[in-house]
Fold:
Amino acid sequence: MPNTRILLWFALAAILFYNYQAWMHDYPAPGSPGAVSQSVGAPGAGATLGDSVPQAASAAATAAAPPASAPAIAAAPAAPALTDPQTALPAGAAPAADARPPQALHIKTDVLDIAINLKGGELDQADLLQYPLRKDSPNTPVRLLSREPPDSLYLLQTGLTGAAGEAAPTHLTTWTCAENSFVLAEGAKELRVPLTWTDGQGLSVTKTFVFTRGLYSVDLIYDVQNAGGAPRKLASYAQFLRHWEHASRSYFDVETYSFKGPAVWDGKKSHDLNVENDTDSKFSQTITNGWLASLQHQFVSAIVPTAGQPYDYKLQVRDNKYLLSATGPMVEVAAGGKAQFHEKLFVGPKLQSQLAATAPNLERTVDFGILTVLAQPLFAGLNWIHGLIGNWGWSIIIVTAIIKLIFYPLSQASGRSMAKMRTVAPRMKQIQETFKDDREKLGRAMMELYKKEKINPLAGCLPMLVQIPFFISFYRVLLESVEMRQAPFLLWVNDLSSRDPFFVLPLLMGGAMYAQFKLNPAPPDPMQAKIMQFMPLVMTGMMAWFPAGLVLYWFTNTLLTIAQQWRVNQVVEAEAAKPRS
Structure:
C-alpha cells in the first residue's frame, strides 16, 4: 500500500479516536467510571439547595454509633449571587466592592483577596490578585468565589453539625469576630482569622482560617471546648454550592473544552461528575483519604478532609445548582473536654506544585487526559527549562528539539528511506508505465525494487505515529497548565495559551509544511499527490484557532524535520552518485 495512503488512514484513525474520547467524556454511559455513584433519596419537596444542614453519618471516633443519613441538601442562606471567573467583565471593570454582604470580613494576603461571611463563616468571594481576568485589563483579577447574579452562584461553605436537637455552629449560624478586616503584614508568614461561637450552655467553638504567604491553600481549624455538664457530639463538614449551565464543548475553544463541574478523588482515582447524568447527579460514597473539588479551566476550589478518617461524600443537583459535600465522623466531646477538627481548603489556580503540597493527588485536578503519561513529563521538562530561561516560548522550542533528538535514530532511518525513494523515483515511474495494465506484476516489480534498494515504504509512517501522541499531549499541557496562561513569547505573540492574533505562526507553519512536502518524494498516485499538496492548507486553517504555543511546537518540529531530511537527501544523493564496484 502506498506510504501516503497509510499516513492518511492513521491521521483519520487518530481524529476518530480523539473525538470518540471527547464524546464519552461528555456523555458517559451509566455504570462507566465517570458514573460510579450510588443512588440516594431525593431532597424534600420545597427545600432550597443549601438551606438545611448536613447530618453526620460515620461512626464516632470514641465509640461506635449507627450510621446516620448522608449530608442533607444544604444551601447557602438566600443571598445575592456571584461572579464566576469565566464571566467576561467589561474591559477595565473592577470587581464590585459592594458584592460582599454587610456581615463580611475582608482578608487580604499577597495572592488572595477574600470575603468571609459571618453568617455561616463561609467563603463567598475570592479574587486571585496575581491572575488578571484578561490581559488587557490587568487590574481586574479572576474572581473564583463571589456573590453577585444568581446565574454565577459559587460558595464554599463549612461548619460543624451536631446531634439532633442540639445547637451546633453550622454554615447557617452567625459567628462573631473582634475585627472586620485582616491584612497579611509585610514580612509575616501567615495570617490567622479567628471566628467565635457559643451556644450559651457551655459549648464554645473557635473557627480559625489560616492563610499563608504565597499559597492558595487555607487551613481550617475548629477548636471546641465543652464547659457544659453533658457530653456533646459534633462532626465537621464542608461543601460547594454552585450554579451550573449546560455548555457545548469545542476543541477550538479552550474555555469550553475544559471540564467544568464537581469532581472527587476516591482514594484511588478521580471522577469528574456530570451533573446532567442521572447516576452522577446522585453520587454518594464513603471515602477515606480523598478530596472534593469544583473544577473549571485552569482554576479550582478544593476541600481536603482530615486524612485517615471516613467522610461521606454526596452530590445533589436541583434548579441549575449543585451541592457537593463531605461530612466527617461524629466525635464525642466529653463534659469539660476539648476537641479539634481540621480540614484544608484550596482556592486558586491549578499550580501543580501547590496542589501536590496541599494534598496527595490533588494535582490530578489538572486534567491531561488519557496521555497523562506523556503530558506530565512534558510539563515537567517545560517547567524546568522555563525556570532556567524564563520564557515559555523558548522552553517549547527547546523541548521540541530535545524530543526530536531523542527520536533522531528513528527519524534518520525514515529519512533515508524517503530519500532513497526520491532517488529511484524515475525507475518507479518507468515500472508504473511498463506494468500499468497489470497490477499484480506492478506490485511484484515495486517490491523487488524496494528490496534491491533496501527501501522500507512504510518507514515514513513511524515519525507520524510518534508525533500524534506528542501533539495531543502538548495540546493538553497548553490547555490545562495555568503556568502558561497569558504567557508572552516574542513580538506579537503575547499569549501562548490562546490563538495567534494575527495568524502569523499558522501561516509560517503552513509554509514549512509545504516545503516539507516538496522535499519528500511525490506519491505515485496523482490523486494522493493532490491531497498531500493541499494538506498544508488544511492544517493551516485548522491550527489557526489552536493555542499559539501548540502551533509553535508544530512549526519548530517541521523546521527541524526539514533540516534533517535535507541533510539526509544530500548524503543519499551523494551515495547514489558514486560508481558501484
Summary: Residues 1-9, 25-47, 57-99 have pLDDT under 50 and may be disordered. DSSP finds twelve helices and 19 strands in the chain. The chain has two domains: 53-86+102-365, 375-574. The CA atoms of residues 497 and 547 lie 5 Å apart.
